[in-house]
Amino acid sequence: MKITDIIRFAFRASTGYPTRTLLMLLAMAIGVGSVVILSTLGEGARSYVVGQFSSLGTNLLIVLPGRSETVGGPPPLLGITPRDLTLDDAMALQRSSAIKYVAPIALGAAPASWGGREREVTILGSTPHLFQVRQLTMALGRFLPEGDASRAASVCVLGYKIKQELFGNASALGEPIRIGDRRFRVVGVLAKKGQSVGMDMGDVVIIPVASAQALFNSASLFRIMIEANDRDAIVRAKETVLRIIRERHDGDDDITVISQDAVLATFDRIFTALTLTVAGIAAISLAVAGILIMNVMLIAVSQRRAEVGLLKAIGAPGGQIMALFLAESAILSIIGAALGLLLAAAGTWILTQIFPDFPLIVPLWSLWAAVGVSVATGLVFGVLPARRAARLNPVLSLSRR
Amino acid sequence: MISLSRIRREFQVGDERVLALRDVDLTVDTGEYIAIMGPSGSGKSTLLNMIGLLDRPDSGTYLLEGEDMTTLNDKQQAALRRHKIGFVFQFFHLVPRMSAAENIELPMMLAGFEAGERKRRVHEALEAFGLTNRARHRPDQLSGGQRQRVAIARATIMQPHILLADEPTGNLDRVSGKDVIDILEALNQKNITLIMVTHDPELGRRAKRQIHMVDGRIDSDR
Ligand SMILES: Nc1ncnc2c1ncn2[C@@H]1O[C@H](COP(=O)(O)OP(=O)(O)OP(=O)(O)O)[C@@H](O)[C@H]1O
Ligand SMILES: [Mg+2]
Questions:
Q1: A224/A326 same-domain check
Q2: Residues belonging to chain A with any Cβ–Cβ distance to chain B shorter than 8 Å
Q3: Averaged over A144-153, what is the pLDDT?
């Protein structure tokens, strides 16, 4: 029997029973579609997070107070709280040749007001180097002025959103605003920039770190952000930071230094695992589709018993009948997979309409995997019904017993 | 040349054994016209299926043109059914989704014939059986007599040596039944061995040789 005849026969057989065929196609399409869409979402989430972290800045190190990793050894004595990071700690780090910029950060919230408008804002105390470290851009004016970091100058830089909310369309440059019980002169407004992880830079007021410490009456820093000289200097910079702080903190390792690379790599791993998990769960629906195929094909075989008997009577050997029924389930799963890909394309299109900022990338492997698995499922689950057909007793199938 | 000797076929029905064929001996020469008759359950269909290689005996030997059939595997038997044997059934057994022409073409499709040859033979057969203007009709659009003619065309399209018909007129009225018998007899004239099971004594009398079966045995053979 010719292969084209097998395909035509199987195709005609499946279109002969439209309801069951549509059901099978639907199940297969949903399975394939969900694998592709879910892995696309996972992949999109991964690249979104990675992109966000990259936009934090390059060659970045973040110094946090307190140890968050354990490296073995005896546990620290109870009751010893980690020393705070101070401005002097931050200044000391500037000595290192591996480090380009150091931006200490003090964080807090306070009410800010101008001309009768008031709102609670996030106050970020830092130094001019924050500008380079976070790769900020100005819309108007300039950033914090250079100078002694321990001097509490009364100037501030507004995030884009804060400027809109306090000033509207009025000019903000040179205007005095009240933050807490102090007055600050606006020297600049940040340009509108996409959100980046941890902090919306449109929604902050930046003031000199010493002013922030005075405002919140606290000498401790939230964290220190560091830009290493270049990629190769990251490891060296990290070691230097640990060494300098250890010296300053009486030999205690009571800080954590996170490098952006490590964070990125971790997120990358987490999201890849997540994508695979979600795709795997979706693949279960493919297995369900396979079982449906098997069921429907079993019904088809018993509906078409007389036909199988006839085929045998006119000279079809068991293998040929098996091939005909296998071809039928293979054709159904291939068409189902194709429909599933269309479904996925439509789904991704709708998602991009709803979340235009979210990067949706269909991973190529998911296409191959979904189609491959669905065709394999069709064949594997088609074997049992096909074998049953091939083994039917022709005399019994043809008689109306 | 068909030669059956001591063919036995048993069926297990619950606890009971039913002997459908009790050591049947039968020899049929090429070109013969045989009617098999007998009461219901006497083993007529079982004998026909045995000859047509749709069933295997529990014991005994079956030689078809000198070749032992009982030792052949499924595939070899299928090949013989394809090329040497044609079946005609009481219930036609046409594939419902296929047109008359496609039903007739089916054995050649299974045998892997070229499209041109298939078309030529189908065309000839449609003409020979007076079905030309019914070629594209599906079985449910055909009368019983037309359906049986399609079935006969399908059974003979591979030019078999033997034609086996199990009550071919059982589902037809007298007129179309007569038609079908005429066609079968005309085929027999062209030296095809015709073996037909029938309940109709009048039809049976037309055959040159009549076999009566009773309870799995050949009771008379004239
Ligand atoms: N697959 C089977 N399983 C059990 N018993 C069977 C089977 N096939 C045939 N028989 C039995 O074998 C005997 C002969 O059956 P067969 O069909 O050959 O009779 P028949 O002469 O063709 O009858 P009818 O004229 O009713 O068609 C019957 O008793 C029948 O019940
Ligand atoms: Mg019978």
A1: no
A2: 1-2, 5, 9, 12-13, 16, 306-307, 309-320, 394-395, 398-400
A3: 85
Task: Indicate which of B44, B54, B158 best probes the interface with A, i.e. most A CBs within 10 Å of its own CB.
Answer: B54
Mean pLDDT of chain A: 84
Please give the residue range of the domain that contains residue B143.
2-221
Q: Do A225 and A273 sit in the same domain of this protein?
A: no
Closest by CA to B21, choosing from B45, B2, B47, B40, is B47
Question: Which residues form the domain of A280?
Answer: 3-52+265-398
Q: What percent of chain A stands above pLDDT 70?
A: 93
Q: Hey, how many other C-beta atoms are within 10 angstroms of the C-beta on B27?
A: 12
Model pTM? 0.72
Structure token digits, residue A283: 């693949």
Last residue of one domain, picked from the residues A181, A205, A230? A230
The alpha carbon of B20 and the centre of ligand 1 are apart by a number of angstroms equal to 6
Q: Which of A20-29, A282-291, B155-164 has the highest mean pLDDT?
A: B155-164
Instruction: Give the closest-approach CA distance of B107 to chain A in angstroms.
Output: 6
Mean pLDDT of A133-157: 87
The ipTM of this complex is 0.94
Could you read off the pLDDT of A39-58 as tens digits, one per residue?
888 888 888 877 777 666 67
CA of A400 to the centre of ligand 1 (A): 11
* b (16+ CB within 10 A) / e for B112-124: ebeeeebeebbee
Residues B174 and B152 sit within 8 Å (Cβ to Cβ): no
Taking phi over 0 as left and psi of -120 to 50 as alpha, with beta for the rest, A147 belongs to left
Same domain, residue pair A391 and A318? yes
Residue A79 lies in a domain: no
Number of domains in chain B: 1
Backbone angles phi, psi at A299, to 5 degrees: -65, -40
Chain-centroid distance, C-alpha A233: 28
**B80, B109, B150, B152, best to mutate vs chain A, most A CBs in 10 Å:** B109
Supply the CATH number for residue B38's domain: 3.40.50.300
Determine, for residues A394 and B54 on separate chains, whether the beta-carbon distance falls below 8 Å. Answer: yes
pLDDT in tens, B117-156: 999 999 999 999 999 999 999 999 999 999 999 999 999 9
Q: Say if A62 falls within a structural domain.
A: no
Residue B26 has pLDDT above 70, yes or no: yes
pLDDT computed for residue A79 by the predictor: 47
How many structural domains is chain A composed of? 2
